[in-house]
Design goal:
Two copies of one chain form a homodimer. By secondary structure, chain A is an alpha/beta fold. Chain A is 43% helix and 23% strand. In chain A, the strands form two sheets. In chain A, strands 3, 4, 5, 6, 7, 8, 9, 10 and 11 form a nine-stranded mixed β-sheet that branches. A two-stranded antiparallel ribbon of chain A has the order 1-2. Chain A contains ten helices and eleven strands. The N and C termini of chain A lie far apart (49 Å). Chain A folds into two domains: 81 residues, Orthogonal Bundle (Arc Repressor Mutant, subunit A), CATH 1.10.10; 205 residues, D-Maltodextrin-Binding Protein, domain 2 (3-Layer(aba) Sandwich). In chain A, helix 1 crosses helix 4 and helix 5 packs across helix 10. In chain A, strand 3, helix 5 and strand 4 form a beta-alpha-beta unit. Chain A is elongated. At the A-B interface, helix 1 and helix 4 of A face helix 1 and helix 4 of B. The structure holds a DNA duplex.
Chain lengths: 296, 296
DNA sequence: TATTATAAATCGAAAATTTCGATCGTTTAC
DNA sequence: GTAAACGATCGAAATTTTCGATTTATAATA
C-alpha cells in the first residue's frame, strides 16, 4: 500500500469510472487498472465490483474509501504543518460558498490576497448540501453558507451574522424610508427575482408558502449582480437577504414583516483537523469584516 | 511522499543511526540515505541535522515524526478494519506487560491462542514508562501494568483489579493463617526479594521509606517464578502483590498492615484509534478472568 | 439479431524509480 | 596518528510503474 495507490483509488471511487479517473489523474487507464489491482492484492480484498463494464464499490471499498481519505489527509496535514512552521506563505486554500454569500467572499478574497499574494484562492460555488459533502471528503477547506445550525459533530460551524429577507429598493423610491413592509404591499411592485438555482429563492418561496402568499416575478435572473443592476436602474425592486447589498450605496433593504424571515450566515470547517495558518487568517478576516459592518 | 518513505523515516528517527535503521529495515544504508533525502526534497525541508557522522532530528523532523507515525497508523488501521470485516483471524497482537503481571498475561495468552490459533501474540516486557512510550508510538497494542490512574487523555486506562502488598508464605508456616501482619514482624523472617528491576520492589522500598522501616533481603532474585519456587520450598518468605500467586496452591498471601499498600492493575490502550477484533477479544478475556478469580 | 460504442482487463515494451555495492570524505575514538 | 564508524555519492542492476495497443465483455442502438 502506497499513498499514490490510495490517491488513485479515491479518485476512481469518486468517479466510479476508471477511464475518467485516469484522465483526471493524468495517467492511462491501464496504469490505474493495474495500480488498483495492486492495492487490492496488498489488502487481500476486492475494492470494486466489476459488473460488466461498470464498476461499483464493494462494502470493503466503501470502508477503504474513508480510511484512504483519512490517510491521505494525514499526510497532507503533515506537509502543511511543516510549511506553516517555515512560514511559507504559499499553497492554496479552497473555499466553498453558496451564491448568496459569494459577494462577501469575493471582497475577503481580495484582502486575503494582499496579505498572502502567493497563496492561490480557489472558490467553489455550490449548494449547501453539495458543499457539505465536499467538506466531508476534504475537497474544500471551508464553506460559507446559510445554514440551520446543524448538530453534526464532524463539522465546526460558526455563526457569522443574521440576514433578513428584505425588499430591495432604490433610495429614490418613496417606500425606501419605511421601517418594514408586508408581502401584500410588495405584490404591487414590479419584481425581479433571482432564479430557482439560488437558495434565497427557495427560502423566499417557503416563506411565502408558510404565509399563504404568492408573488409573481416579472423577470427572473440567475446572476445577483445583474439583478441588483436592474434595481439600481430605479425601474425594479427585488427580494434578497439584506446583507447582499455590498457595493450598491444607492440601494436600501426594507425588512419584510413576517415570521421566520431570518437566516444565519455561517462559516463551516471540518472539525478536529489541523487548520493551516492561511486558513486561520482567512477566518479572522471574514469575522473581522462582520464586526466592521456591524453585522454581528 | 510515500508510505514507504515515511516508514523508513520513522525507523531512522527512532534509532538516529542510518546504518542501524537500514539493517533493521532490510535495506542498504545507501537506499535509506537516498530515500530520506527524497522525502526531504518532497517536503522541501530538512528532517535531520547531519552533524559530522551523527544525525539528530531537526525541529521539523520532530514534528514530522509524529505525523509520519499517524499517517502510517491510519493506513495500517485501514488494513486491519478490512481484515476484521472479512473475519480474517490472522495477524499479530503485541502486548506490553510489566514483570509483575506477566504471569496473568501468559495464562490469558494461552486461552487466546485457543480461540485465534493463527494470530501471533508478541509479548514485550518492560517498565511502565518504557511501555507507555511504546503505546504512544504505536509499537504495542496495549499494556498491562500497575499504574497510578493517569490523567493522560491520549491513553485509555481501564482498571482490572486491586492488589495488596503481602507477605507470601507456605501454608505450613505458623503465620499463614494470620489476617494481617506488620513490617516489624516480617523483619524476623528469612526474606527473598525480587530485584530492583521489578516495579514491585520499588513500590515496596517506597512503602518502607514512608513507614520509616527497613527490610534486608537474604536473597535477591530477578525471576518471580524462581522466587516463588524458593518460598514453596518452605525455607523462605517473600513480599509480593497478593495477585502474583497464580499456580502456587501451597502458598498464601498475608496482607501487610500499613497505609498505601494497594496498587491498581490496569490495562491500557492508546485512545481514539480503532481497536481490532482480536484485541477486543483479548481485553474481554482478561476482564472475564478477573471476574472469575473474584479479583474485581 | 447484428452492430457499434464503451469500458475494464491484459500484455509486452519503455520509462522511471528504487535498490544495491563500492567508494569517498568526515568525524570520532583510541 | 591510525583505525573504525557513519553518512553521502555514484553508477549499475533490479524492480516497479507507466504507457500504448489489443482483447474481452457488456450495454446501447439499429
Amino acid at each position: 500500500m502506497e499513498l499514490r495507490q490510495l490517491k488513485y483509488f479515491v479518485r476512481a471511487a469518486e468517479l466510479l469510472n476508471f477511464t475518467q479517473a485516469a484522465d483526471d489523474l493524468y495517467i492511462t487507464q491501464s496504469t490505474l487498472s493495474h495500480q488498483i489491482k495492486e492495492l487490492e492484492t496488498s489488502l487481500n480484498v476486492l475494492l470494486f465490483d466489476r459488473i460488466g463494464r461498470r464498476v461499483k464499490l464493494t462494502e470493503s471499498g466503501e470502508i477503504m474509501l474513508e480510511y484512504a481519505r483519512r490517510t491521505i489527509r494525514q499526510a497532507e496535514e503533515a506537509k502543511q504543518v511543516l510549511m506553516d512552521l517555515n512560514n511559507l506563505k504559499t499553497g492554496k486554500i479552497i473555499i466553498g460558498s453558496t451564491y448568496g454569500l459569494v459577494n462577501l467572499l469575493l471582497q475577503s478574497a481580495t484582502e486575503f490576497n494582499e496579505e498572502f499574494p502567493d497563496i492561490q484562492i480557489q472558490i467553489v460555488l455550490g449548494s449547501t448540501s453539495d458543499l457539505m459533502q465536499k467538506i466531508r471528503s476534504y475537497e474544500i477547506d471551508c464553506m460559507l453558507s446559510f445554514m440551520p445550525s446543524s448538530e453534526d459533530n464532524q463539522l465546526d460551524v460558526m455563526r457569522l451574522f443574521s440576514a433578513n429577507l428584505s425588499l430591495i429598493l432604490h433610495t429614490s423610491h418613496p417606500w425606501s424610508k419605511l421601517k418594514k413592509i408586508t408581502f401584500q404591499k410588495i405584490a404591487e411592485l414590479p419584481l425581479v427575482l433571482p432564479s430557482q438555482s439560488y437558495s434565497i429563492r427557495n427560502f423566499l418561496d417557503e416563506t411565502l408558502l408558510k404565509n399563504n402568499m404568492q408573488l409573481k416575478a416579472k423577470i427572473e435572473i440567475n446572476d445577483i449582480h445583474s439583478l441588483l443592476d436592474l434595481v439600481n436602474s430605479k425601474k425594479w425592486c427585488t427580494i434578497l437577504m439584506d446583507t447582499s447589498l455590498f457595493h450598491f450605496p444607492e440601494l436600501v433593504a426594507v425588512p419584510i414583516e413576517s415570521k421566520n424571515i431570518t437566516r444565519e450566515a455561517t462559516i463551516t470547517f471540518p472539525s478536529g483537523i489541523y487548520r493551516k495558518a492561511s486558513l486561520v487568517f482567512f477566518q479572522n478576516l471574514i469575522m473581522k469584516k462582520m464586526v466592521m459592518h456591524n453585522l454581528v
